[in-house]
Amino acid sequence: MSKGVAITGMGIISAIGNNVSENYTALINEAKGISRISKIDTIHKDAIMVGEIDFTNNELAGLLNLPANNNYSRTAMLGAIAAKEAVKNAGITKISKYKTGLISSTSVGGMDMTEKYYYEYLEDTRKQKYIESHHAGDATQKIAEQLGIKQSLVTTISTACSSAANAIMLGARLIKSGELDRVIVGGKDCLSKFTINGFKTLMILSDTYNTPFDENRKGLNLGEAAAYLVLESDKVVQAENKKVLGYVKGYGNANDAYHQTASSENGDGATLAMQQALKVANLQPSQIDYVNAHGTATANNDLSEGRALLRVFENNVPDFSSTKAYTGHTLAAAGAIEAVYSIFAIQNNVVFPNLNFKTQMKEFAITPQTDFKYKPVNTVLSNSLGFGGNCSTLIFSKNQ
Amino acid sequence: MKKVYINSVASIAAQKTFDNTTFLEDVTHYTETVLPLIDPNYKEFIPPAAARRMAKGIKMGVVASRLALHEANLENVEAIITGTGMGCVRDSEKFVSAIIDNNEQYLTPTSFIQSTHNTVGGQIALGLNCKGYNFTYVHSSTSFESALLDAKLMLACDEAKTVLVGGVDELGDHTVKIHRLIKHIKQVPVNSAQLLESKTEGAVFAEGANFFVLANELQKTSYAEVVAVKTYNTTTSTVTQVVEQFIADNNLLINDVDAVVLGCNGDVTYDLPYDELQNQLFANIPQLYYKHLCGEFNTASSFGFWLGARVLKEQRVPVAVQLNAQTKKEYKNILLYNQYRGKDHSLTLLRKC
Amino acid sequence: MDALKQELKENIIEQLNLEDVSVDEIGDNDPLFGDGLGLDSIDALELIVMLDKDYGIKLTDPKEGKAIFESVEVMANYIAANRTK
Predict the structure, then answer these.
(1) Which H or E run includes A338?
(2) Does the structural domain A6-240 have CATH classification 3.40.47.10?
(3) Which residues of A are catalytic?
(4) Global pTM value
(5) Are A305 and A267 in contact (CB under 8 A)?
(6) Which of A81, B114, B167, C61 is the most exposed place for a label (fewest CB within 10 A)?
(7) Residue A306's Cα: distance from chain center in Å?
(8) Which domains, ranges and CATH numbers included, belong to chain C?
(9) Which residues in chain A are closer than 8 Å to C64, comparing Cβ atoms?
């Protein structure tokens, strides 16, 4: 059993940077990663904006030294790059020294290749290597291979937009219970025609920069990203004299049980998830210094989440912002991306601004933080809310 | 740590298993490469307004979960944990092909929404109005065992008293077609009674849903105790060594294992670890197999779990699943072993309760 | 107009997979959402695509659908006035 769940390493690749330091620099410089789409040939290219990672698939394969006949989906490559950075960042040289697991999430999996070669598979044997890369577990298996994790607990979670938060939550529970000494947790998703068209049919894609918590918000920008944390037990931290970046202090998952895609008007699921996380963390709402909101900038999410914040924090909602104006909504990676940003907030005592905000929402009086705010940040609460009513909250802390 | 029990079982498979008053007395033998499902009457359980958007996998999952709750005499559970290797492939296929065929125009949202991997778990929650913990694991042949591991952790730590856990996978036409091309599906039909003698590549595919209520309080009607479950992404030692270590970790001797349930699927290339256990470590105890009855799918091992649980409760092994001639007077500890194509192995230990 | 209404009813049943509903059961003025046919927000999105595909009417804001999809009668009037195909 481990009392604390220490975060000892992080890795990230997103539309605002290809590693941890580039992401932090972009956040500080208010450098949005939102642009017109360049890597996917879609008829919606003039109607949407996305958070795209600069590297082409060939460049990503080069960074990983993959052989020409590899069958990595873009999702798998993004995940492998971020996970490797996390392990390196944690100073791990021998991964098998401790009981180490990998919990990774995705929603699109290998869909980027499937949608490209769907009919070609039937005729072109050279393309058939990607058939096996379609299922959601494939990218996780490949990341485990890249990290040298063998004969271990390796699994994949897919609960739509809360997936990565749930991977972090499971990892924390496995460390606490002593099942694992160390676990790499996070998520990855690449952009695909599948998700672009899917969200398009739901009519929740903005044709311009997304504006979370703004009265005139027009919907979300999709993004692609991957991010991982290394979680270690007290035992490993002590034995290796590890530098701890922060702790996973609380977590909660609840279901809205309201509608397949929409959130309930009063944010029942989100409220329950936040309350559960506070309970696990043994913290009062007043002890939260910053809320990294899910804040996708859809009409429905921001209203429902805002109301949930009011229910949990009553009239004392802490400084809150959504960082999706920077990165876009990165689906099954979002919870991990925002976990990294939450740790940045703790490390640097800063609250990141909610970019693009102009007009106060009519339904309530809470306003997101719109400028940088430097203040002591000891605890961050991060929300991830998804389809299927799946609501998750994580709480990160500076001290155990 | 609390003990974890299986308090109810429900299976929808290529056999008539949705009725728990029978136990594989009357099995259907197939000569196919892809098995059909023996369906319950879904309409009895799902109102038409809800059913109209549900593909097969969602219906199977929802109905299996209802059956499991009913048998456990529960209206609701505290958590729902689902395993599905391929997710809702029919809706995924429908949406991808619509994107390509219509050049991204006139697409409708239903198949996209339904294609999300956590649709089954979400729909079960919606139907039960269950606001509790809801996770979906999607990791190939350890999807179900990942869900099981989570449920066990939750119950052992008393984070919940009752958890619905299940495995569900459906087949889609295109998925079947392309897996046949890469020979993951057998090229030539084989009679299910001779599945293991086929000596050919690939498996016989199928679909199914197996759901269970697990709880940390023993009931008179409980099936078995879930003692341990462990997953391995790869194996670096022989399967014998992996099993020996697992048994030792659970403070047992190999001789304490009364029966072994093997996930062999008749693929000549990948059945070797099963053969090894069958011929060596467990040569002298009853060996059970089941994929000739339920076919292969990413969560087929949830059928093996169903089988192990029922054997422990009823203390008898149906003839249809006997792989050797050994029998025991009492079945106390049953070990389940499964892997798919040499990856994602799992060991589950069940005990009579 | 009657032909259009008949066509709409058939399309609604087919598009929304309302297997247990027949054309005769949908009255021209019955509410489609809520207490009437019991359609929901996902159905509204399906109907928006139907307007585009079958009648060349493009809605950009799903909220516009609310008034248009009140009943078959209202829908038929809207389509007759705005159709481009």
Answers:
(1) helix A334-348
(2) yes
(3) 161, 294, 329
(4) 0.98
(5) yes
(6) C61
(7) 20
(8) 2-82 (1.10.1200.10)
(9) none
